[in-house]
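Quick one, T. Sequence first:
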Amino acid sequence: MHVLEITDRSIEQIIIDEYPNDEFIQETLKLIQDGVRRSKKVSLSKYKAYRDRLYYQNYLVIPNYDKLKLKLLKHVYNLLVAGYLG
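Structure tokens:
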């Protein structure tokens, strides 16, 4: 059984640390920065690069990193629970 523990790093810090390690993000950023217009893997017209970050239809693309996903789910869950008054 695989148990995933929450990291002490903030969401922002995980994104900063893991962005260079995400192969899809780095490949897509390179295609955009190199001026490539078409790709067999991805619809580049829906992506934008801004300040070394990749955006899909104006949403930040996050690294494919399980601890980040878990932290984001926990954050959203806590927002929902805190918003429920009862």
